[in-house]
Amino acid sequence: MGKAEVRRRDRMGEEQLGDAVQRARAGDETAFGVLYREVHPMLLGYLHGLVGDDAEDVASETWHDVVRDLRGFRGDGQAFRGWAATIARHRALDHLRRIKARPRTGPLEERTAEPMTLEDAGGTALENLSTRRALDLIAALPQDQAEAVLLRVVVGLNAPAAAKVLGKRPGAVRTAAHRGLKRLAERLDGAMEK
């Protein structure tokens, strides 16, 4: 595999996303399209980390639930991302129960849009790797660290929103994401020295 850059996609501002949420709740199909285009790549990346090749199917179930329950949703753009990630996680866990497997991380597809938000050594190192390699490294992390990194970096949630998705405290999510990114940086440093 040749050296490929991690694809970055500019995230919509939270105010713009919040406006699209409000318009979609009122039945504006164009606004819903904006929500889908903004949030779907991040959810798909997160789901690939949880259920591997079944991510598309689980994403479809997730969007079914989002459409069904959107009118009852209350919150801004960040809250919508967290709400959608929570639904995705529940659908992923339901899927895994159906196939009688425990949650696992798996490699994400290279086409997954992966916005990088952390300006630290781990984030910088991930930018220099191919998407496949970066996601393979994330998949090798312990489950709690992998999921925290996926929610914080791929989905773009802050610690309180990611904590709500995982049913943990924000400090635990920050710690898991920090440890995961630290492990990634150490592995990258070790690989570069060889």
TrEMBL record:
Family under the similarity heading: Belongs to the sigma-70 factor family. ECF subfamily.
Keyword match Aminoacyl-tRNA synthetase: no
Domain RNA polymerase sigma factor 70 region 4 type residue range list: 133-184
Domain RNA polymerase sigma-70 region: 35-99
Official protein name in the record: RNA polymerase sigma-70 factor, ECF subfamily
Stored InterPro entries: RNA_pol_sigma-70-like, RNA_pol_sigma-70_dom, RNA_pol_sigma70_r2, RNA_pol_sigma70_r4_t2, RNA_pol_sigma_r2, RNA_pol_sigma_r3/r4-like, WH-like_DNA-bd_sf
GO molecular function, one term: DNA binding
Keywords: Sigma factor, Transcription, Transcription regulation
Source taxon at top rank: Bacteria
An example Gene Ontology biological process: DNA-templated transcription initiation
